[in-house]
Amino acid sequence: MRKFVTTTAIAAVMMSLGGGMSARAAENVEVLHWWTSGGEAAALDVLKKDLESKGISWTDMPVAGGGGTEAMTVLRARVTAGNAPTAVQMLGFDILDWAKEGALGNLDEVAAQEGWDKVVPTALQQFSKYDGHWIAAPVNVHSTNWVWINKAALDKAGGKEPANWDELIVLLDKFKEQGITPVAHGGQPWQDATIFDAVVLSLGNDFYKKAFIDLDPATLGSPQMKEAFDRMTKLRSYVDDNFSGRDWNLASAMVIEDKAGLQFMGDWAKGEFLKAGKKPGTDFVCMRFPGTQGSVTFNSDQFAMFKVADDKVPAQLKMASAIESPTFQSAFNVVKGSVPARTDVPDTDFDDCGKKGIKDLAEANASGSLYGSMAHGHANPAAVKNAIYDVVTRQFNGELSSEEAVTELVAAVEGAK
Ligand code: GAL
Q: In which band, very low, low, confident or very high, does the pLDDT at 124 lie, cut at 50, 70 and 90?
């Protein structure tokens, strides 16, 4: 009975509000994304709730698959069918590819009103703007050269964070002696490539830049690249037998549940630790991949805004504005594990890993050691990225020797350029 009265009362109120109410109800955004893990979904919820509080409803289009490979395939099908979503989570060069096709909308008005040019780092603007026009709203900055270590296992192993490659190997051997899986990993091309990002960076900033940013054939084919593949072979010896195809968040869970020593993964992994109630410094340790301190390989999730029917544009612009609000940037990134996509957001609400992430990013940017992540679409367009993925994964799985991988890498990149 009570339920009946309540429903009737709501219906009466809605009728009395008339046109105003239906205009509000029409404000809707359809959002395609791959944030389906526990930590990712919790962060996305911050955005959904923020928009709901502004009267904008959310139509969810999740496409599972870390790194977004599957999401990008679904997106292509949607756009080909003439049915583009309002906003799409997207990485780096993919945004520019869609802009080139003329598929994206224009956020100039809101960007100018809110002064985005002054607060969004230039490294991100490279991907948020095309031909001088804003086409995407950056929501965060992640980076890929992180290690997430189980604190109890590290303490048992002597408590020292490995400062270089040799110390890392010593630590992994100690994890083996403890009877846990030393490296929690999921055998998917993007995850293999995420480790490769860090391994290549650990062999020098210049090496990373020449290999992945400049795509210099001599560097791609160098003895140093063979060394990078040799390191991948070494790391492969520390993963468990069931690693193949495992999702990244299940690998994080192995560290969270004391089954594995560490995971090499971008800082979205922190979102999983936090979701599980774990605390940095107490339950887990975050550190840069040994040998990459001071350098950052970044990727930024942006919401690329598609050309949509005129009546959908106001909600799209409101979504872009909400994403760039400094308070939202703080609230969202605290949960996601990433750092703000603006330079003026205080780090007050961030935990120690987040504070370190903000500081590392600013310092790497100032010292010229901030690079786009190859594995996460910020070094090259998808064609080149996928060509590198293919070689890295085949080598990691023992289908290619390090020597063969070097030769294949040069040819694959040349063919995809
Ligand atoms: C990255 C993305 C992150 C995280 C991760 C795993 O490409 O930037 O936000 O979602 O994939 O799904």
A: very high
Q: Is there a domain that residue 364 lies in?
A: no
Q: Which helix (H) or strand (E) holds 148?
A: strand 146-150
Is 363 contained in some domain? no
**Residue owning tokens 């003329």:** 102
Q: Tell me, using a 6 A CB cutoff, whether residue 30 lines ligand 1.
A: no
**CA 205 to CA 109: how far, in whole Å?**
38
* Smallest CA separation from ligand 1 atom 8, residue: 301
**Is the predicted pLDDT of residue 164 greater than 70, yes or no?**
yes
pLDDT at 14: 41
How remote is the CA of residue 51 from the centroid of ligand 1, in Å? 21
What letter represents residue 218's amino acid?
A
- State how far Cα 337 lies from the chain centre: 10
DSSP string, 28-73: EEEEEE---SHHHHHHHHHHHHHHHHTT-EEEEEE---GGGHHHHH
The single residue listed with the structure tokens 């703000």 is 340
Query: Are 115 and 338 a contacting pair, CB within 8 Å?
Result: no
The angle at the Cα of 88, spanning 114 to 296, to the nearest 5 degrees, equals 75
Token pair of 16 as six digits: 């009395």
Ligand 1 proximity of 68 Cβ (cutoff 6 Å): yes
For residue 40 and ligand 1, the question of a CB distance below 6 A is answered with yes
- Work out the burial of residue 213: count CB atoms within 10 Å of its CB; fewer than 13 is exposed, 13-18 middle, 19 or more buried: middle
Expressed in angstroms, the distance from the first to the final Cα of the chain is 68
Identify the DSSP state of 104: B
User: Which position has the token pair 């550190």?
Assistant: 287
Any idea what the CATH number is for the domain that residue 29 is in?
3.40.190.10
Q: Cα separation of 266 and 268, whole Å?
A: 5
Determine which helix (DSSP H) or strand (DSSP E) holds 370, and give its type and residue range: strand 370-372
Q: Which domain holds residue 21?
A: 2-142+298-353
Pocket of ligand 1 contains residue 116 by CB under 6 Å? no
> Is there a single domain that holds both residue 260 and residue 401?
yes
**Whether 169 and 122 share a structural domain:** no
Model confidence over 167-201: pLDDT tens digits? 999 999 999 999 999 999 999 999 999 999 999 99
